[in-house]
Write a structure and sequence with these properties.
Blueprint (H helix, E strand, L loop, with lengths): L1 H10 L11 E5 L3 E5 L11 E2 L4 E7 L2 E5 L9 E4 L6 E4 L4 E6 L6 E7 L3
Antiparallel strand pairs: 1-2, 2-9, 3-8, 4-7, 4-9, 5-6, 5-8
Length: about 120
């Protein structure tokens, strides 16, 4: 797994910062609600979390958080919580979300713009 993630980091080293999710469902000055659906082997854009947010989980099994090599932060692999779970994520991170599991990672990231 480590080799796969390191290869991914090298192949995507020049990626620009983009959106965390596949599509924006709603956004105003207070909140941003998006939908994210990377299938096995797919990944999000490289993205930075400017605000705290919550992830509302619909499905998935394993995801890798892959920060750029230049960040000095190590990648990690995490088990996606059961459908219906909500996970809080603090602001500050920059990474790709790489689906390293066997199921589609379907979730709704909710960005809290005013905290």
């Amino acid at each position: 797994m480590r080799e796969r993630i390191e290869k991914f980091r090298e192949e995507h080293a020049g990626d620009p910062i983009g959106d965390v999710a596949n599509r924006v469902l709603f956004e105003d000055d207070n909140v941003g609600i998006s939908e994210m659906t990377p299938a096995p082997g797919e990944h999000s854009n490289l993205h930075h979390h400017d605000h705290d947010y919550y992830r509302v989980i619909m499905s998935g099994d394993l995801v890798a958080g892959v920060p750029p090599k230049s960040s000095g932060v190590d990648p990690f692999v995490g088990r996606i919580p059961a459908a219906g779970s909500t996970v809080g994520v603090p602001k500050g991170g920059t990474e790709w979300a790489l689906n390293v599991g066997a199921k589609t990672d379907h979730e709704f990231p909710i960005e809290l713009k005013k905290t």
